[in-house]
Amino acid sequence: MIIDSPFYKYHQQTKHTVEKLSSNRHFLDWANQPNPFRFYAGAPEIALPHEMLASPASFFQSMDSLFAENNVEPHKADSTFISNLLFYSMAISAWKEIRGTDHRWALRVNPSSGNLHPTDTHLLLNGIEGLPDGAYHYLVPRHSLEHRSEANLGPKLWRLVSGQDVSPKLVICLTSIFWRESWKYQSRAFRYCNHDLGHALASIMLSANILGWKVHAIGEFPDEEVIRLLGLSGNDEKPFLIIGAFPTGQKQINISKFDFPSETDAAFKGEPNILSAEEVKYPAIDAVYDSTVIDKNTWRARFAQALPEMTGGAVFEGLKEKPIKMDSVVEKELDESVHKIIRMRRSAVDMDGIRTMPKAEFELILKTLGRGFSADFQTNGQRGFHLIDLYLYVHRVDGLPPGVYYWRRQTEELQPLALGDQKQVAKFVSCFQDIAADGCFAVSMVANFNLGYELFGNRCYRYVHHEAGLIGQWLYLASTALNYQATGIGCFLDDEINTYLPLPDGQEVVYNFTVGEAVFDPRLTTLPAYDFLN
User: Fold this and answer.
1) pTM
2) What pLDDT, in 10s, does the model give residues 62-93?
3) C-alpha angle with apex 307: 304 to 312, nearest 5 degrees?
4) Are 331 and 428 a contacting pair, CB within 8 Å?
5) What CATH number did the domain enclosing 422 receive?
6) C-alpha to C-alpha distance for 440 and 513, rounded to whole angstroms
7) Do 488 and 339 belong to one domain?
8) ω before 502 within 30° of 0 (cis)?
């Protein structure tokens, strides 16, 4: 039963309440803050080209092609492709500095809870022009690669996790370092690490698509085997997503052409840097992670498991208000180059509480969230299988009365649940943060744990947060493209939301969000991300 599952017990244990927030004596030990960047000392470093491409497509055009036949000519598989893919998905977007001080910090293209960035990026290259085959780690602060192994591990890993007889020239492995998050968020950090993995997946999907490539994500794999193949044994990084990238419309390489190295052949170079003087352990994180690990036998048993084509979404009885069909058309040119939108995305820290959003733009944002994505725990297509439902607190949207609404992603209908001003409710359930009330609207993302547990067991706890994080990145980018700002809210009163909506047993809020007009802090200045951009 789900109520007895380790992940569900962890979820209950890490819920916020008013009492917990007021009694928590945790403080931020700035002297022990983890290094936000991982590097492998002793691994050869290879510089990436600085030729950054500029797509003529807008964000919404790129999103449309992401879920349809992409007519973008695939960029050839070379070092420039790798450089651009990473620059527009995992790189630094800017440095912020407090005016008149030397206090600065990096912002990245993909969002992160608290800007702590627990996600690291490993690449397995096979036939990429200008780069030797082998295993690499992306060195974010220098936009370069660390060459950790010369063994051609990509085909072996991809066949292991996918069962397919084709191998992509690029396999991306996203790992998570829990300590980077738990330093601030304690035991609840495992949730945020998985949100961030969803943010990163969405970023890679879009960046690859702009270059004429498609990606497929795999979350179902035997963890210990993948840890050994990636040379992560004894490390503080854990693999969570394996992503294969293929040029659209091109014939794939037959995997039988490769002689797979044995595990002993794969020598790895470089020692991971120590992130801080002392890592504080949180047993709840270790326990929930261990509960989501899949051994070989479990993985094989459900390898060919078919997913349902679609979930019908929430069922409501006794509602007076009829569903509202979203059918507005925004006729003007909506945004600038998708590449510019990606690089200028920011997380708002305050909103004005004044700006109103036209209904047509609100609908366009919602429609951006309605798609599935290509992953073994999802189905590809515009109306695919979902583990997340979306509830909206509408504050200031022209043509819609304030209230709580349910967004039926499958049919693109907005179901009114309770009409009336929701600003104080949104603020209260988001840990009393004004930003949840001062945006044009706020969102609660709700996980269907019943369905997830039935299909994936404890592993579903990763997937619901991945999907929520992916939706969050679409919210960020769609808002930016329409000249709004957004921010993810990880601090919320779980059971207050679950009761207010109200949600049936086994459905739980996992992420909050808000969209509106940001108020910018004049004390901060923005500096270029990299020296080569000066």
Assistant:
1) 0.95
2) 998 887 777 788 999 999 999 999 999 999 99
3) 175
4) no
5) 3.40.109.10
6) 11
7) yes
8) yes
